[in-house]
């Protein structure tokens, strides 16, 4: 009889203990830091562009997209992107690894434009391009 009482008491204690174990929850690190980690390369360079380098027959009102190998520090874009010959103002910005630019007015037909990213553009990991990097396209 004493044995059953001991087993019952131990069972209750085990069940009570299991009920009191806290359930795991996401850590602050996983919620705030991990989504920012978007480094896909050990170097910081242009991965791709639209229009592509050397493209012809590009619309006079293109949306220019530049995908980088790492997330971009948005404040480093200020005055670090240029267009030649002189483009209408380019509006846009960056989101994670992508820079999106749109001319405020139509480009000129039959002109080859060169977009240059200054060497000082920086990734969120502190890397810079290191050299000015350009790509060109020709409008319709």
From TrEMBL:
Keywords: Signal. It holds the Pfam family Big_5. Residues 43-139 form the SbsA Ig-like domain. InterPro entries: SbsA_Ig. It comes from the Bacteria. This is Ig-like protein. It comes from Leptospira kemamanensis. The lineage of its organism: Bacteria, Pseudomonadati, Spirochaetota, Spirochaetia, Leptospirales.
């Amino acid at each position: 009889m004493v044995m059953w009482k001991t087993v019952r008491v131990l069972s209750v204690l085990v069940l009570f203990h299991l009920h009191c174990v806290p359930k795991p929850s996401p850590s602050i690190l996983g919620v705030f830091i991990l989504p920012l980690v978007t480094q896909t390369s050990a170097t910081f360079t242009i991965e791709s562009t639209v229009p592509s380098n050397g493209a012809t027959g590009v619309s006079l009102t293109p949306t220019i997209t530049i995908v980088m190998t790492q997330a971009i520090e948005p404040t480093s874009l200020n005055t670090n992107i240029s267009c030649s010959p002189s483009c209408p103002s380019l509006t846009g910005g960056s989101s994670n690894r992508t820079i999106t630019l749109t001319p405020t007015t139509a480009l000129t037909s039959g002109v080859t434009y060169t977009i240059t990213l200054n060497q000082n553009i920086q990734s969120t990991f502190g890397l810079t391009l290191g050299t000015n990097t350009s790509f060109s396209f020709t409008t319709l």
